[in-house]
Amino acid sequence: MKPRIILSHTTLPDGGTLELHEHDGNHYLHVHGQQLAGPATRISEDELAKLGTHPFRPARQPKILLLGLGLGGLLNAVCAAVPQKRATFSVYEPMWDLIYWQKKFFPEGAAMKDSRVKMLDALSPSLLAKENGTLHAILMHADTAPTIKNKTIIEDKRWLGAARDALQNGGLLGITAMRPIPSLFGLLKRHGFDVAEHFVEGNTNAKKPRRYPIWLARKGSPEEK
């Protein structure tokens, strides 16, 4: 068997250790012995990128925010799904190590190669709200997004309200995760989003393929309320 190699590691704000692993040509993020990202998560990230950007294919200058970088899979998929040269992709990632890992281990990824990408190391609910209806989509993988008190950033009411303010009418907040988040559907609904929940199958060759959730939360126009 080929060995699993720890390429790098960093300390999280809660004192835990985030590790970048490589095994047989594949890469993984691990924390507390639990896998956060890897080949399996790319399946749902690819699907989220397609679903979350499809309504804005005709837009001349789509403006998309990603909350968290992870292994860069979601960003790569979004950049591939949106070919417009004047599109902008902002990625909020407060952990500098993840950006450095892209430079060192994934130099051909969109984070390093696509000139439409802008990395943000600082963002707050008030700064996000100042986008004031200009964003077409906000996308994230819940397991690799920035957290607040061990909860995904979007489970914080301040951030969720700011995300809604930042989206244009009809804009999408798209979220995927390794497993269901029971409270998320209701939370999104209570904040005025029209929510659809999808599931995408992981390894279809497995006897019981794992199903990954995707939530698409659409911001309605005032007259729709």
Topology:
Elements lengths: L4 E7 L5 E7 L2 E6 L2 E4 L1 H15 L9 E5 L5 H9 L6 E5 L3 H10 L4 H4 L3 E4 L4 H5 L5 E7 L5 E2 L2 E2 L4 H10 E10 L7 H7 L2 E9 L9 E9 L6
Helix pairs in contact: 1-2
User: What is the third-level CATH name, the topology?
Assistant: Rossmann fold
Span of the ends, CA to CA: 58 Å
The CATH superfamily label reads: Vaccinia Virus protein VP39
Estimate the strand proportion.
Answer: 25-35%
Measured on Cα atoms, how large is the radius of gyration? Answer: 17 Å
Strand line-up of the largest beta sheet: 7-6-5-8-11-13-12
**DSSP strand count:** 13
**CATH class value:** Alpha Beta
- Please give the CATH architecture: 3-Layer(aba) Sandwich
- How does the overall form come out from the CA principal axes? globular
- N-to-C order of helices and strands: EEEEHEHEHHEHEEEHEHEE
**Class inferred from helices and paired strands:** alpha/beta
Largest sheet: 7 strands, mixed
Counting DSSP H or I runs of 4 or more residues, the number of helices is 7
